[in-house]
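hi! just following up on the protien thing from before. the input was this:
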Amino acid sequence: MIKYYEIIKAPIITEQSQKMIEAANTYTFKVDKKANKIEIKNAIEEIFKVKVLRVNTTNVKKKFKRMGKYEGYKPAYKKAMVTLVEGDKIDAFTI
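and the predicted 3d structure came back as:
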């Protein structure tokens, strides 16, 4: 059995993602690095009970950050932009 909650890690809620929701009904999630588009689509449809139109993915590389004398890297992750059918929405993103 596929564990959908292991594929979808967390929603990404930023100013840019809120604009994408309003303009194109596109929601952004952090997903498992090994997940493909079909698995992501099935997970979103099962968890939120919506119809997915399209899934776009991108691998976000690790970034160098410094806080005072300490320095390190923010971890890399995979990001999925999920476009829903017109009329569907995910209530978890409303603030």
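The first helix runs from residue 4 to 7.
The mean pLDDT is 94.
cheers
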